[in-house]
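Handout, page 2. Input:
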Amino acid sequence: MIGFLVWLVGVICCIWCIKDVWSKNNVDTLIKIILTIALLAFSWIGLAVYYFIIKDRI
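Output:
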């Protein structure tokens, strides 16, 4: 049950980050695609990288 909740939180956060990335107009489409793939493939690591490094730059 705990594993499912961790997975569910990860999926919700990934969807939120992907929506945030694609709503930015000043970001190149290639970067949007790379970030989307990274968030889907490496969910928790991708979320941490997005939050601490990328979020402030885009």
